[in-house]
Amino acid sequence: MAVADIAIARIVAEIAEEMRSHENRGKVATYIPPLAQVPADKFGIAVILHDGTVHAAGDAEEPFSIQSISKVFALTLALGAVGDQLWHRVGREPSGSAFNSIVQLETEHGIPRNPFVNAGAIVLCDVLLGRLQPREAIGQMLRFVRELAGDDGIAIDETVARAELETGFRNMALANYMRAFGNIHGDVGMVLGTYFHFCALAMNCRQLAMAGRYLMGGGQVGGHRVVTEKRARRINALMMSCGHYDNSGDFAYRIGLPGKSGVGGGILAVAPGIASIAVWSPGLNPSGNSHLGQLALERLVQRTGWSVFEPRG
Ligand code: DON
To answer: Atom of ligand 1 at shortest distance to CA of 69?
Structure first.
């Protein structure tokens, strides 16, 4: 279903208006102390169409902690570094478990189910550190998202990174457990330091939607190739099947687009060939995904007809 540009502008504005006054906003994450300070009444949305038109509303210019959405960019960089070798160390199946769960690692010999659970992203960091020092890997990530978004203003929130280091006992357990299985090769402290800095990237909805354009564009942005078409398709497939943890099936059912959430309340969603979308609302559902972010995306796809399961035309 083709929806005229003007209609998208109205839809985006109306969604922001509805979400602004919504009462049930979910619960803001508290296990990373600085995230607990973020007011629950925030809501932002940015939709970037294939022709580059930007539609944004609400708090779309306010930076937030992208948290696990960084796993998409980390996966892209890790695949760039080692290609399909990556899949010897990380699976491609939905976990059906919480994002920080350790239970499957024991029976699955330290191989995380997918790159989007914490354990999987910690392995991605270890892969990147096979060739780079932590400082270089963090610099590479920052350059990558800045280039994707066309915005040098993107930064890492050091307060968030430090808070994660001080409170990230589960992640330390995951990393050490995988080290015991031989699936972390480097120094656990350095791997986690890199992981926490990736999670602490601060971006606003517009920057995040800009950064996601390569996944809308078959791996290309404005004639510049970021990844191959096949790789973009596969990253999108993983976002669809694993991007919302034990809530991924429901996200696919309700929204029908590849998406990746973070406990900062952001979601990056991709309508291939049509739009790159970022929403942000800090209150989470029990699986750690933005409650209003998901609702806003549901409204957007209901009104536009965007879905990877819908015939295009
Ligand atoms: O490692 C953590 O727990 C956080 N830095 C990231 C978790 C996250 O965003 C899960 N997403 N919903």
So the answer is: 9
